[in-house]
Specification:
Helix content is about 25%, strand content about 25%. A hairpin with a 3-residue loop joins strand 14 and strand 15. It binds flavin-adenine dinucleotide. The site of flavin-adenine dinucleotide (FAD) has 38 residues, from helix 1, helix 2 and helix 9.
């Protein structure tokens, strides 16, 4: 019987496990290695956090997010990394304030050593969870038992890297509600009106995007937009996919005096009679979970304490992307994974 079983050896799971050095901990993951998303993130340099951090960069319950980020901030994360000899540097080239590591491997090596007290069960897929005085976790390699369970199983994006719906199935089983799931930080497919994007495939421009959804504050995002064969992508579009729900958003293709439009873009804008400062478009859809960096929506945070414990089922915790909090592009999602893990383990350590 384990004191704590952590389902998922992704960012949030390994951070949580690393903190529980006085507990008998088991980490289970269907992948053959820990932190598969960390490994490929940020072009293998892991964009781990951002200098500019507050709840405004996230979708979800703002008060809940604020409390979590205050408990373990970007500065706390950088201090933690530095004390383990990982020293990310700011690189604002693509998104302002982003911190990148020398190599993602540094982060993975750090966590490998910080979880050496844990039993690590890799290539082990969890198929069912139940509770009878303690947690009973069924896997393809037998059944495990634990007094406390931390679900750190992530969202639905990138099934090729182990994503499954186990976290949501388990949450529903214990009575939780799941806010609508959708791919996010993903490119858009376009409607006929934007077929002129296709001729410009491969070109990128500065863009300022204004999104005004019903019941939501107006969101303004700036950054590079990339024209692609099937639509559009690039940093500013990926973050737009986080906030856009339905209807039009508008694009300013010349947001500042310093913006430059490539010749072919200028010609296409003229030929298609485009309003360069206020172009309204409504995407046909997006590139889906296979391409989306994250899943928006998730376990309703009203049903979790500030320590990420279920209010409906004792000794059950949900951390990381599986909960209904999603950040913009720029290191915000790893920061969330780590901050939520620390809020959870602060409580477990204190019990
Ligand atoms: C290509 C890509 C690049 C990214 N780059 C960045 C970046 O640079 N900066 C940033 O902040 N964010 C980035 N993200 C987002 C970030 O990776 C996630 O938000 C973060 O990893 C979420 O952490 P998590 O611990 O909640 O889930 P995950 O890291 O997804 O971990 C969940 C783990 O649970 C395991 N699991 C799931 N189901 C089961 C099951 N049934 N049985 C056993 N194990 C299971 C999975 O194998 C996985 O290892 C990127 C994402 C992708 C896909």
């Amino acid at each position: 019987m384990y004191d704590v079983l952590v389902l998922g050896a992704g960012a949030s799971g390994i951070m949580a496990a690393s903190q529980l050095y006085n507990h008998k901990v088991c980490i289970v993951d269907s992948n053959s290695k820990i932190g598969e998303k960390i490994k490929i993130s940020g072009g293998s340099k892991c964009n781990i956090t951002n200098e500019y951090l507050d709840e405004s960069y996230y979708l979800g319950d703002k008060a809940f997010i604020k409390e979590t980020l205050t408990t373990f901030s970007n500065k706390d994360l950088l201090k933690f990394l530095s004390s383990n000899n990982v020293k990310p540097k700011i690189n604002p080239k693509i998104v302002k304030g982003t911190y990148f590591c020398n190599s993602s491997e540094d982060v993975l090596n750090m966590f490998s050593s910080l979880i050496s007290h844990c039993t690590l069960k890799l290539d082990t897929k969890v198929s069912d969870i139940s509770y009878d005085k303690h947690y009973v976790i069924k896997t393809n390699k037998g059944t495990l038992q634990a007094k406390k369970l931390i679900i750190a199983s992530g969202g639905l994006s990138y099934a090729s890297l182990g994503a499954s719906d186990i976290g949501f199935t388990c949450a529903k089983f214990f009575g939780h509600s799941i806010n609508k799931l959708n791919p996010a930080l993903v490119g858009f497919t376009v409607q006929k009106d934007q077929f002129w994007f296709k001729e410009l495939s491969g070109l990128s421009v500065d863009a300022k995007i204004t999104i005004s959804n019903k019941n939501q504050d107006i969101k303004i995002l700036e950054g590079k937009m990339l024209f692609t064969h099937k639509g559009c992508s690039g940093p500013v579009i990926l973050s737009t996919s986080l906030y856009w729900q339905k209807g039009n958003f508008t694009i300013d293709f010349l947001p500042s005096k310093n913006s430059y439009l490539p010749k072919r873009v200028r010609a296409a804008i003229k030929a298609n009679d485009i309003d360069v400062h206020n172009y309204a478009m409504s995407p046909a859809g997006n590139f889906g979970y296979t391409k989306a960096e994250v899943t928006k929506g998730g376990i309703n945070t009203n049903e979790l304490t500030n320590s990420f414990q279920s209010k409906l089922q004792k000794d059950l915790y949900f951390i990381g992307e599986v909960v209904d909090v999603t950040g913009e592009l720029g290191g915000y999602n790893f920061q969330w994974a780590f901050s939520s893990a620390i809020c959870c383990t602060n409580e477990i350590k204190a019990i």
